[in-house]
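Recap slide: No apical meristem-associated C-terminal domain-containing protein, sequence and predicted structure.
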Amino acid sequence: MKAADPNDYKFSMDHCWRELRHDQKWCSTYGPKECGKEKRKGDVEADGGDEAEGRPIGVKAAKAASKNKKSGEEESLAKIHAIIEIKEKLSKQKILERLLGKKEPLTW
């Protein structure tokens, strides 16, 4: 004898399915041709753009994003300081070159 497969049963709610199959809850994530196909097909193919519309960001994700944002701000601040230092060095070098380029003696 063959063991009974849990999927081998007659669906007894056909009347409910006929009423609800085109309901927004079941067809909102799928196009009109995809309704009734594979359950998670729309979620697997999502590229992240649908997440902003579907669910709000979680607490942990928000905290992680804010930490990354702070480190990004610190990183950009460090870059700005490095640029300022380079500009100061260049201006000092230009002054030194001008002083060395003069032929007459310097007077105080």
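The chain has one domain: 15-101.
The helical segments are 14-20, 24-27, 41-44, 49-54, 59-101.
(End of recap.)
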